[in-house]
Amino acid sequence: MSRWHAFRGILRRNLVTMRRYMFNTLSSMATLYIVFLMLFFGARAVAGADFALSGTQDGLIVGYFIWSLAIFAYSELAWGLSNEAQQGTLEQLYLSPFGFRFVNACNVVSNLSITLLLNLLLLLAAMATVGRWLTIDLVSLLPVLVLTLVGVVGFGFAIGGLALVFKRIQAFFQVVQFVMVAFIAAPWSTIPWARYLPLAMGNHLARQIMSDGVRLWQLDRGDLVVLLVTSLAYLGLGLAAFGLAEGAARERGLLGQY
Amino acid sequence: MVAYIQPLPGAPALAVESLRKVFPGRRGVVAVEDASFAVDAGEIVGLLGPNGAGKTTIIKCALGLVRPTAGRATVFGHDVRRNAAGVLANAAAVLEGSRNVYWRLTPWENASFFASLNGLPVSDPATRRYLEAMLERFGLGPVKNSQVRELSTGFKQKTAVVSALARRTPLVFLDEPTLGLDVETSLELRSLLREMVAEEGRTVVLSSHDMDVVQDVCRRVVVVSGGRVIADQDVEGLLDLFRSRRYRLVLDGPVAAETREYLERLDSQVSVAASPAGTTVQIQLNSAAQLYELVDLVRRSGLLIETIVQSEPDLEQAFLELVRKERAPK
What we know:
The complex is a heterodimer of chains A (258) and B (330). Chain A has one domain. With 258 residues, chain A is mainly α. Chain A is built from ten helices and no strands. With 330 residues, chain B is of the alpha/beta class. Chains A and B meet through helix 1, helix 5 and helix 10 of A and helix 1, helix 2, strand 6 and helix 3 of B.
């Protein structure tokens, strides 16, 4: 008996589910792509000739890439928990001897791997459309993306925890997706504390890597530390909030209810 | 059975000790009140009770899905609050019937997924053979590669049962496993459960409000009502309790008011049904002496007893009697 078999089982289930919901997966990607095009051409029309030169174009591409990744990562957790409760399978996941946190962590890792691949394709499509090829240095980019998403996962755990207790909070889920835009766009050159918001530092560093071709070891150490500490802090806070909500759900017998 | 955290030697498969659960709220709903019982390894025990009796809450407390207010439940000696992994390595459950499986996956994919959740190597030939055999045994072989959403209610329910069994735990909780099934499928599922328990030596706690299912499958029954355990004995013993004291008399004419009053004093729930052919009295007596009193009374009232039959109670009658007594004002 091993955790590895459990992880493989969860990855296999996620791949099969994604294949069965292929239309949903493809339509989500297509929607993200179309929204990107609208944003891009809209922004270019407003900014005029300065759009490419001012760095806004690169910022938009990187920011949109980070946001779409964050949306997938967050949704898989928050919506995923809510869907499992709705289907009636959530309690079965809780019956794994490895613990629900392990099961959920496997779920997050396997879904993030799939999401990362899909979003890299989306990024390539976006770059091809606008004719601006950014640097995709995976050795530098992946650690930054993973750390950025760790913070988002914390967020997803907290919201997922709320879903365990309050059930129908889909409207709130959607609001949070737009709050993430604000996190990415936070002007932390003028508001210093904004760098500690989820996604803000990750977006800043990813932009340096992709737009300016900076390598991982050339990034500012202080910025990397901020990314590491804030991401772990958000993950810790998210897990703590999830733990509280889970305790309340067990106390009130809500795990199997929807 | 496969359990990576072994049962503690000599421990019962399930021990519920002074379990109490009050769901918080403005009034606080008491779901389970001081419930205690034990299930030995290899037993197949029915947890019987009306809707809302507390059966599911007891099971969920044992599995750690609901936190008890007081008392505890152990599975093979492991307490879920101290060693959840020990409990969950040894117990699986069907809790929501067919809702417990993924409808977009096939029976095979569901069974292998839930086996893997308990760390079983699905790629291992022995595990695959076991899962294949289980699917075949439950009649799911021909549809094992169809999505569950395309299957009938019976197949969906069987997929849920197989997915719980696929975890290969020595204890299995089956909460209302035949709910919503037609008679034929229900009978088939009961027969399969009996076979599976006999062959694999698993312990099964089967919760149901369907008396036929419990009487058919279980040797022992724990009756729960209002969150309390009101009876705990083998099915035959429970039926014996009621077999000796329930009578059906057919009299050749209508009973007088005084006779009726006397009958009601003997059993407040007595049933007296008049028809042109006579009067049928169904009565529960407390002792054999009361039967002689009853016969004397009928003779004095000038009526003839055409038939007198000692009723053969089924579990449903026994259960209703128990619940009625429990609910009667004290």
